[in-house]
Every structure is written in C-alpha cells, then in structure tokens.
Design goal:
heterodimer; A: alpha/beta; Rossmann fold; two-stranded antiparallel ribbon; B: alpha/beta; seven-stranded mixed β-sheet; five-stranded mixed β-sheet; 12 helices
Chain lengths: 283, 331
C-alpha cells in the first residue's frame, strides 16, 4: 500500500469535501454536516488504514468497512471514488433514479459496498456478525464500522455493544462520529450519551479518543486497535459537523438539509482556502 | 378420498395416531442440516431449550451463538454472518422475532436477500396459558410483505423436519413459524415436501369445496373432511405449507374445480393465508370464500381447546364455513 504524507491526505480530504458539497447541491438533498465532518476519518481509513483492492471488491481478505450511519454516504461515495472503486463522474448522480449511488447506501446498486445501510443502530451488530464469522473461520481481515453518536440512542446498538464485548471481538474497530448533533438538536440535550468512554469500558471495550480531523491521530488509533487482542476497540472521534464550512460547523440545522447554490458557492470557497485550517489540526 | 401418492400416516384418522412436537422436528432437522453443512450457525435469544436449538448447541457449540434477550441483535448479527458466508438460523418466539425486529429483518436481511432463516417458535393462540402478550398471530403477515422473504408453516413434526432441511439448502431468506403444542403426525417420512408446492391431501371426483389450511389447522381440516364426507359433502383439503411463494397454480386449479374456498389459519385473517389466497383468486378466478382465523382481535389466556373455540378455529367451524360457502356458490 502506498504511504501518503499527512499533507497529501489533507489535500485529498479537501477535494473530497468539495465533492460532497457539489454532490449535495446537485442532489438537492442529503446530510451535509455529518458528511463533511467524517471526511478526514474516511480519508484516513481508505488511504492509511484499510487493506483493500478496488479492482477486486470481493477479495476475501479485504478489511471490511461498514457505514452504519448510512446518511453520510456522500462522503463515503466520494472517498470510494477517489480510491478507485468507480469513476468520479458518478458522484454528481447521487440519488438519481437507477444510479449506483442511492440516497442511502444500497448494495444492490453498488456491490462494492459491504452493507446496505441507513436505518440507525444496526451497523455495529452487522459488523459484529462479520467479525465473529471471521474469527470462526480464522480469517485475518479486520472489520471497521462507523457509527454516529446520535444512533447510540438505539437499543439495537447497545445490544451489539454487549455482544461484541462478551465475545472479545478484537478484530473489530468501531469509530464513533462524536459530533454532538442529531436531528432534533445537540446529543446531550436530546439524549445524553456521556460518559460515553466509560460506558464502553464497562462493556469490556478498549477505548481510544482522537481528534477526528487529525489524520495522524486517526491512523495511529487504528493501528493501536490492531494490536489489542483482548477486546473490541472503539475510537471516539471528536469531529466538527460541517467541518470546513464555517456556517455549517456545529450547527444542528445542517444535519439534514439541502444546500442551495449561493450557500454552495460560499461553502466551496471556504473549502478551497481551508488547507491552513486543516494543517492547524494536523500539527 | 385420501391422496395415496402422499404416503400419509396409516393411522391418519385413528385415535392412537402418534402425536409429536413440530419443535422437535425442527431441532432434529437443524442438527441434521448442521451435520451436512458447516456454514450453518444457530443464534438463540435466550430460548434455546423451548425452540429446540439446544440439540444443535450441544453438538456444535462452536457454531452456536447466544445473543441474550435481544431480538434486534439476533437478526442483525445474523445479517453480518450471512454477509460473511454463513447460513444463520435465528431462533426465538414469533411474537419477538419477527414481532419486535421487523425493520431490522427488512433492512439487513430482506433487501440484499441474505440466506438468514428466522424461526418463530411458540406462534399462534395455542401457547394458551401465557396469554395475549406472547401469542404471535401477526407473524405471517409481517414476513409475507417483505420482498425476497419466503414463508413456511409446517403442519406436523415430519414436515417441520423436512422444511428445516429444505430451507437450509436454499440460498434465500426464510421465515418459519412453529407452534408450542404437539399435534398428530399425519404425514410420514415418505410424504413429499417441496418448498412452494402445496400438498393436495384429499381428492374427489365431485368436490364441492376446497379447504386451504396451514400449520396446526391442516389436521383439523382433515377431520372436517372426514365428517363432511360422511354427510355426503366431498371436499378437497390442501396443505399450504409454503405461504410465500404461494403455489398459485394449485390454488387456482382447485378453486376452478370446486368453485368454493375455505381458508383456515391460526393467525389474523388480515395479511395471512386467507389474504394470500384471496389476492391470487381475485386476480385469476374469484369464487365465494370463507376466511377462518383470528378476526382482527387479540388473544388471551386459556387452554388451546378453549381458545380455538372462542376464536372460531375448530373442526365444527370449518364444517360450518364449508356449508356456508357451498350455499353461497349455489345461491
């Protein structure tokens, strides 16, 4: 696997963010805040962590990445396209009838996705089923799952937290997008999650907390998780929803909202000049 | 007369016909399927003894997964395992799975058509004592409505065993419901069983009505057949063990032959067997129909016999419905 410098990763993330804004503008629907907030994590995963071959999406030994919070799929699609899974031109067809990029990830239309997803609270359980199967079959790939913080309200999620802890699924890494917002407002007002790290520890998970916009920290945390043989690992990635676009950052109103073209222009301008901002996080 | 090609029990109408649990048929079938195919894994939501998943668990502990009282996890973990090449059997009670975890089944199993087998034990009114909260009588409707999902309702021990072995071999999602109580083993190991192919149990040169029955109600339909026959009314009894995909060819053919239809199921009349037959006949060959089942009501505690009487699921109810539908046909 090619080794990218942190600067290169930041540059890729900037391009991905531009794509995400353009995609949601064109589609006139989507979840811009969560999508933009997870770009750095996704770029770090695809360019610095995951073992995969975009020309062989069925390769048995590939690492699995399950996107439980399927609503941020614009970011996943954009990163997958940059990684070589499909041509860049498809990005502007997000949510179009018959297109490969459905409004929520749909494996029937894009078979290189690991799962069809969107309804919250299922992804960790599915990832646990994959990780358990891998252990049963002595397969060496690793299973990653991205979950939102809002989806921690779901009972299904905590059932799976208990299950993965019980079964010591050390081949499983979850990355929680801890962006503090959900549809009805701030997570701590809608349904408080803290102390989140302590909750995972109580369920026999290893916990690593990172700045979700610091590529180095994300990659280091994923590598550390590979070396933990006792438990599954949760990486709580503190992110800024809408990262890169000032008027979206940390504003719950942008959780699920189409971008109008004036706003997009302004957003794109900010992303184009944000290299410095990202660098700040990197240092 | 009874269809000889089906090799039904020699004691079909004898008082000492053997009585067994369908759950045992499932448990034994599952064990056999597990011996044949190492991809089979069994998940239990804290009910392994009463679902009979314990037989598999004892023989193959490394392929038995206990998820606790967590039906949503039950099916979503199974989805992940199927994604990774396993053939998971999810065992619980019908009221909880698919009762509690419907959306998870739809999303994580139905859409991508993973070969997960959902076993809803303790279905129907027959669980008796435990009452309304535990009587799964909506499960057929819930599963039938999901694209890609197949629905099987065995009618005795032998059939439950065969059905288990069959659904294990088919690379598709299945729902199979099982009752709590024992029932007459009216078929034999020789009786043919094919998913999607209804069994015509009785034949007649001059049939006046066809009874489409499923699950525990099939044997009651046979008893009704016998009594009607004594009274000079010839009926055809069809065991619809696969509700989806429905054997439309047989359903339409028998409706044409008789011109009158009775359906009976231990399930709500909305969305179950009666609905499936109605939909097919409405499109192909509408005839007068009587639909027996729970008439949009909730259940309650009681002995199975008392409940079947209260909810209109007895041999006498079938006889009455047959006479009524024949009268409608001839009116």
């Amino acid at each position: 696997m090619k080794k990218y410098s942190i600067e290169e990763l930041q540059e890729i993330a900037k391009e991905v963010r531009e794509d995400v804004v353009k995609m949601i503008l064109k589609a006139e629907a989507g979840h811009p805040a969560g999508s933009l907030g997870m770009v750095d994590v996704l770029v770090a995963l695809y360019y610095g962590v995951l073992r995969y071959d975009p020309t062989k999406p069925d390769w048995e030994e590939r690492d699995r990445l399950i996107l439980s919070n399927g609503h941020i799929c614009p970011a996943l699609y954009a990163v997958m396209s940059h990684s070589g899974y499909f041509e860049h031109k498809y990005l502007m067809k997000l949510g179009e009838f018959g297109g490969i990029l459905q409004g929520h990830p749909d494996k029937r239309f894009l078979s290189s996705l690991e799962t069809t997803s969107g309804p919250l609270g299922c992804g960790l359980a599915q990832a646990s089923g994959i990780a358990l199967s891998a252990k049963m079959d002595h397969m060496r790939f690793r299973t990653f799952v991205i979950t939102s913080d809002g989806e921690h309200d779901e009972g299904n999620h905590w059932e799976a937290v208990a299950f993965a802890g019980k079964n010591n699924l050390s081949n499983l890494t979850m990355i929680v997008d801890r962006n503090n917002i959900q549809i009805d407002g701030f997570t701590e007002e809608v349904m408080p999650l803290e102390p989140l790290a302590d909750k995972y520890k109580a369920f026999h998970w290893s916990v690593i907390e990172v700045d979700g916009h610091n590529m180095e920290e994300i990659i280091d945390a994923c590598n550390k998780a590979r070396a933990i043989y006792e438990n599954p690992t949760v990486i709580i990635a503190r992110t800024i929803p809408g990262k890169g676009v000032d008027f979206m950052e940390s504003n719950p109103n942008w959780h699920s909202k189409a971008i109008k073209s004036e706003e997009a222009k302004s957003a794109l301008k900010e992303i184009r000049t944000m290299q410095g901002k990202i660098k700040e996080y990197g240092e | 007369m009874v269809n000889n090609k089906l090799h039904l029990s020699e004691k079909l109408f004898k008082k000492d016909i053997e009585v067994k649990l369908m759950r045992d048929g499932f448990g034994e079938g599952l064990l056999e399927a597990g011996e044949k195919d190492p991809r089979i894994v069994v998940l239990s939501a804290d009910l392994k003894e009463s679902t009979r998943a314990n037989l598999f668990a004892e023989k193959f502990p490394e392929r038995f997964i206990e998820v606790g009282v967590a039906e949503q996890a039950l099916v979503t973990i199974a989805s992940g395992m199927a994604n990774c090449g396993k053939i998971p059997f999810c065992t619980s009670y019908a009221i909880f799975s698919p009762g509690r975890n419907w959306e998870q089944i739809r999303t994580t199993i139905g859409i991508d058509s993973y070969p997960v087998k959902i076993i809803g034990a303790q279905s129907g009114l027959n669980i008796g004592h435990y009452g309304v909260t535990h009587q799964g009588i909506e499960d057929i409707a819930l599963m039938r409505v999901i694209p890609n999902m197949n629905v099987v309702v065995p009618s005795d021990y032998e059939e439950a065993k065969k059905a288990t072995l069959e659904i294990a071999k088919i690379d598709k999602p299945f729902y199979m419901r099982l009752p709590r109580v024992d029932s007459p083993v009216y078929t034999t190991s020789e009786t043919p069983f094919k998913i999607g192919k209804a069994n015509i149990l009785t034949e007649s040169k001059n049939p006046e009505v066809v009874i489409f029955a499923t699950g525990l109600m099939v044997y009651k339909a046979l008893l009704a057949y016998k009594e009607l026959y004594k009274n000079g009314i010839e009926t055809i009894v069809v065991n619809i063990h696969t509700i989806k995909p429905l054997d439309e060819e047989t359903v339409v053919k028998q409706a044409k032959l008789t011109g009158a239809v009775v359906t009976i199921e231990e399930h709500q009349v909305i969305g179950g067997l009666g609905s499936a037959i109605s939909e097919t006949l409405a499109k192909n060959f509408p005839v007068p129909m009587e639909i027996l089942g729970v008439q949009d009501r909730f259940g309650q505690s009681g002995k199975p016999k008392e409940l079947f009487e209260e909810y209109g699921l007895t041999k006498e109810d079938i006889i009455k419905a047959c006479k009524k539908v024949i009268a409608r046909k001839n009116a």
